[in-house]
Amino acid sequence: MIKLFVGGFPLDFTELDIAMLVGLHGDISTIKIVRDKKTRICKGYAFVEMVDKDGAERAVEALDGTEVGGRQLNVKIREEKPVVPVRGYSSAPRPFSSDGNRGNSSFGSSNNSGGSYEKKKRPRRPL
């Protein structure tokens, strides 16, 4: 799967309109129009997953810079960047020390009460 960024289209475009534009150049797997969370109004760009790289390259070549509805399209292949873990942090849990804390953190032991932290339970509200 190759992901395309398609931007600059009119705000009233639907998934079908984008499919008719891009689908001429290759097979489409998915279309995701980015919309405002509150108003659900289109932000003017979308991500289109193409089945093969050849179709994606044809779509970029044919559509990038063309004018649709008085606006200029911006169509690019979106490069997937590999996820690089932050140095010094691990997703593996740290073992407990003899005082009950994980690692050398002083969380919960500022009052020298043995290092345990208990969360107070709030009473549940009736339904």
From TrEMBL:
Entries under SUPFAM superfamilies matching the protein: RNA-binding domain, RBD
Biased composition (Low complexity): 97-116
Family matches, as SMART domains: RRM
Family annotation (Pfam families): RRM_1
Keywords: RNA-binding
Record region (Disordered): 84-127
RNA-binding keyword on record: yes
InterPro entries hit by this protein: Euk_RNA-bind_prot, Nucleotide-bd_a/b_plait_sf, RBD_domain_sf, RRM_dom
One Gene Ontology molecular-function label: mRNA binding
RNA-binding is among the record's keywords: yes
Residue stretches making up the RRM domain: 2-80
UniProt protein name: RRM domain-containing protein
